[in-house]
Amino acid sequence: MADARAGAGTVTGPMVRAWIEKSAEVLAENRKYLTELDSPIGDSDHGNNMDRGYKAVVEKLPEGDDIGAMLKSVAMSLISKVGGAAGPLYGTMFLDGSKPLIGKTVVSGEELAQFFADAINGVKKRGRSDVGMKTMLDALAPASDAFRAEFAKDGDMPASLKAAAAAAKQGMEATIPMQAQRGRASYLGERSIGHQDPGATSSYLILQAFSDAVEEAAK
Amino acid sequence: MADARAGAGTVTGPMVRAWIEKSAEVLAENRKYLTELDSPIGDSDHGNNMDRGYKAVVEKLPEGDDIGAMLKSVAMSLISKVGGAAGPLYGTMFLDGSKPLIGKTVVSGEELAQFFADAINGVKKRGRSDVGMKTMLDALAPASDAFRAEFAKDGDMPASLKAAAAAAKQGMEATIPMQAQRGRASYLGERSIGHQDPGATSSYLILQAFSDAVEEAAK
Amino acid sequence: MKKLINNAEDVTVEQLKGFGLACDDIDVHFDPNFVNVAGGVKDRVAIVSGGGSGHEPLHGGYVGLGMLDAACPGQVFTSPTPDQMFEAGKTVNGGRGILQIVKNYTGDVLNFQMAADMLRDEGIEVRNVIIDDDVALKDSLYTAGRRGLGTTVIAEKVCGAAAREGYDLDKLAALCKKVNIYGKSMGMALTSCTTPQNGTPSFDLPEDEMEIGIGIHGEPGTKRDKIKSADEVTAILAGRILEDEAYTRNLSEWDPAKGDWVDVEVTDITFQKGDEVIAIVNGMGGTPLSELYTVYAKLAELTAQHGVKIVRNLVGNYITSLEMAGVSITLVKTDEEILRLYDAPVKTPALRWGI
Amino acid sequence: MKKLINNAEDVTVEQLKGFGLACDDIDVHFDPNFVNVAGGVKDRVAIVSGGGSGHEPLHGGYVGLGMLDAACPGQVFTSPTPDQMFEAGKTVNGGRGILQIVKNYTGDVLNFQMAADMLRDEGIEVRNVIIDDDVALKDSLYTAGRRGLGTTVIAEKVCGAAAREGYDLDKLAALCKKVNIYGKSMGMALTSCTTPQNGTPSFDLPEDEMEIGIGIHGEPGTKRDKIKSADEVTAILAGRILEDEAYTRNLSEWDPAKGDWVDVEVTDITFQKGDEVIAIVNGMGGTPLSELYTVYAKLAELTAQHGVKIVRNLVGNYITSLEMAGVSITLVKTDEEILRLYDAPVKTPALRWGI
Ligand SMILES: Nc1ncnc2c1ncn2[C@@H]1O[C@H](COP(=O)(O)OP(=O)(O)O)[C@@H](O)[C@H]1O
Ligand SMILES: Nc1ncnc2c1ncn2[C@@H]1O[C@H](COP(=O)(O)OP(=O)(O)O)[C@@H](O)[C@H]1O
Ligand SMILES: [Mg+2]
Ligand SMILES: [Mg+2]
Ligand SMILES: [Mg+2]
Ligand SMILES: [Mg+2]
């Protein structure tokens, strides 16, 4: 079923820019919340790190509609401003995901699915981690799966991103009962159980921002 | 008017021993109180110092009825166990006071008045201090005066020591509105006003113990 | 929050500024932030380390003759970013390669790896050696592995002396790995601590409880317990260190032949009767020095009971968590090489002898 | 109370035990408690200091080659008793007399005087020099006078080097008095502290307040104020020190001719444009080292504005009040003699260079 609106089923440069800017807003709003999540099972800095990082991201974001260039710039800013575990992990995520998109000003659903897959593989490799270890991957991986499945249905980009964000939220909540196996939370052993992973939470927030930005643009 | 009881108007060796032991008891009971008084205008150790000192005093107290020897022993124990300002000051007090009493097993009212005078002069010289400076002298000096005055009336030792203790109590309370000019409390300037001096308080307690011990013995 | 700071958002910069003013022999750089020995390095391997701020004197306090050539401080308790190590490495490069000493925290490991890759692209040879000496953590398969604690200080001292002696990069990396498998640490906290950015304590610790098995990031430990006497606390920490079994794990290192990062299986020593050790009784920042000596007294007794002899000791604040009250104990087995290099002259803001 | 202790009633003994075990070159004695350089002193003046415990590393941490020969620790925050200095003095006496460096607290002054009298009875020449450098206190007539703070550390260092150079007792006492009138200090507290014996903080300090003009005994300061930034705090302390007017008071000293204690009028210097100084930015025990560097940055700026040049500095915990958070600043004017002696080798647990 083809969509009536022009370019539906795709993500455009301005949408990606809107996503990035919305992510920065949302992370600033949730700075304290993310840091609080990082307190019982981490070192109380995740919100500070992500907010600092995304502030730099927005500041250094290049002009133009090159989606790959924008996402690569996000990666470089995060790598050079976040530090900690999240910096290189999110940095690698955007860097590995951005590579096939350099020069593109419009991205199809298939390309976006590949972006998610590349991004997640980057995190897994860099972090020697996988789903179920109570990390950002527990939000990212189900979101990627949900996106692919929803988009396969009828190519509805806003709906697919909405499904991705919803899956990320579920995945984020699913980290609560998990015992951490990577990152600082793993030092706590069984005491890590019962707390929501801060990285999974920031991942959900970023994906929700993506969905919101595209939905708004599609209106 | 002569007293009917044998030896009334004098203080005997056993009375002095009882005084010293009672002082130790009372200082142990008031350890926390004295330290608390030393907290707002000092360094929170006066009760600890006096209790530690008097425990050693009792432990090392020589046998026998030689009043001078007992008081000198008190002096030496305080000097070697109390430290701080109170150690040398109380030490000097007992040392200077004890000198004319060496070898005596009974002490007359006049001799005791001299003991107080010598003791107080020792503190003044060692401490470069005087009445009105918010120190132990503000309890000791009025007590000495009251003792002399009361004893001059009819030579009633228990009554005279009672008067001394009462004057010490008044003197102690009179330190509250004073601004300290010696010891740590003087560092606080005007902030020392409104607090009772810990050293004046321990002096009162020691004099009250003297009165109580002699009164009990005289019964 | 009770702190001597001006700008909670970036205390690191104002602190580095003062550090630079106070230390004649050290240059301080901003954006990216790093400090290095003035004059740089000539014709020998350079040693770079770093990590989150808040652990002072680690690492900046160990920059100087006979120890580190550069240190990269991240935000408080947050590992530094690759550009810091990249610029620091380029600045101190003396043409014989760079050894990066990295404490085993995910963030540190990843950021130093990225920096190594960047430096290698500039034609500079780099080896990263990971310090993971925290015996509070038992397994590495289901955790991020043992954390880097006090052995880091000894590794920096010993490798710094070896670099001055002219060790080449391979030999120096091998020495650093030896110090790591020779060293074991464990820490505990009596209080939490407060990062300037957050303004409230990282975790709550009731008046009668303590955390056992902490790292250095103001995080809770592996276990919470009722407060115990100094002797009991020392017995817990020293007992775990002295009785720690051989610990085997994979550590990532650069394979110059393969041109890639590879996993290498590494196994720690266990302490044996007759071993001679360097001991650190380390304050977490808010514990009075005097209390550390009480811990040392018990530690000396316990090591002697195990037939282990303390031949050198450090008692004081060497690797801290801001104003946290608590202590960590480190024992590093020595041999002729390690002891000779440990005793060699060192002149840094925090460690100095022989010169 | 959160402390690494075993026996709150006498922590000093357990701490000294560990100190003795950790320090090869230092002998520890109990009942009475004192520590001294192993091997004693031969044919030169010996230097003894002491005071309440809880100020570590002061004074025990400054015992060693080129600094103190013995230190006498009292109970926590309580000056030692004369028998301690008496035994310490007899132990380190090298036949050329003893200099006792005494911080100006009533208890310290009196106990050291009594000890001097006792040693003199044994035929040992003794001079007591009082350090009273705390500019927070203005007058001496209506107070116990200025307290002894950070200048004590510099006096111990400089006099220790002079004793090694062979200064006789008179010359050494004169030097020590010079350092005292050349030095000015002032401190502040962000938090109170808790002595082991009491178990609760010495005073209450709300979350948004600080004490200005504190000593080192966990006591409140001369003034309470709202918490300010590090720069503002530094400006208050440094301002008072740099602008302190010539302070005149009587200090008690032994007159060998008269054979009695006499009062001698003494007047401090005031800092002048062109002065060169040694600066200490001293942590009170619970303040992270990193914060002290923020204070140093501002101090360097302020001294420069006054035309005063910092030629040497110490940044760290040198004279503390248990786990109190706070800082004190000390500036000591130098001249050729003081700087030469300051730079001379020193090997103590807490201060070491040149050897
Ligand atoms: N090995 C890993 N793989 C994937 N994600 C990880 C890994 N280690 C940590 N994380 C994520 O990073 C988050 C913590 O980030 P942050 O607090 O910014 O860094 P740090 O732990 O260094 O303080 C965790 O909540 C987790 O989601
Ligand atoms: N110069 C002095 N003359 C007389 N009494 C003094 C003098 N200085 C201090 N005191 C007394 O000593 C008391 C304090 O004793 P203490 O707390 O044991 O010693 P410190 O002040 O050294 O801690 C004060 O309350 C005061 O009464
Ligand atoms: Mg974190
Ligand atoms: Mg007191
Ligand atoms: Mg972190
Ligand atoms: Mg005292």
Automatic annotation (TrEMBL), chains A, B:
DhaL domain ranges (all copies): 14-212
Single Gene Ontology MF annotation: glycerone kinase activity
Keywords recorded for this protein, A-Z: Kinase, Transferase
One CC-aspect GO term: cytosol
One BP term from GO: glycerol catabolic process
Top-level taxon of origin: Bacteria
Cell inner membrane keyword on record: no
Name this polypeptide is given: Dihydroxyacetone kinase-like protein
Phylogenetic classification of the source organism: Bacteria, Pseudomonadati, Pseudomonadota, Alphaproteobacteria, Hyphomicrobiales
TrEMBL record, chains C, D:
InterPro entries: DhaK_1 (IPR012736), DhaK_dom (IPR004006), Dihydroxyacetone_Kinase (IPR050861)
Xref: Gene3D superfamilies: Dihydroxyacetone kinase, domain 1, Dihydroxyacetone kinase, domain 2
Reaction(s) catalysed by this chain's protein: dihydroxyacetone + phosphoenolpyruvate = dihydroxyacetone phosphate + pyruvate
Classification via SUPFAM superfamilies: DAK1/DegV-like (SSF82549)
Entry's EC annotation: 2.7.1.121
Entry keyword set: Glycerol metabolism, Kinase, Transferase
Pathway, per record: Polyol metabolism; glycerol degradation
Superkingdom per UniProt: Bacteria
UniProt cross-references to Pfam families, sorted A to Z: Dak1
Residue span(s) of domain DhaK: 7-353
GO biological process: glycerol catabolic process
PROSITE patterns linked: DHAK
One GO CC term on file: cytosol
Listed PANTHER family: TRIOKINASE/FMN CYCLASE (PTHR28629), TRIOKINASE_FMN CYCLASE (PTHR28629:SF4)
The protein's name: phosphoenolpyruvate--glycerone phosphotransferase
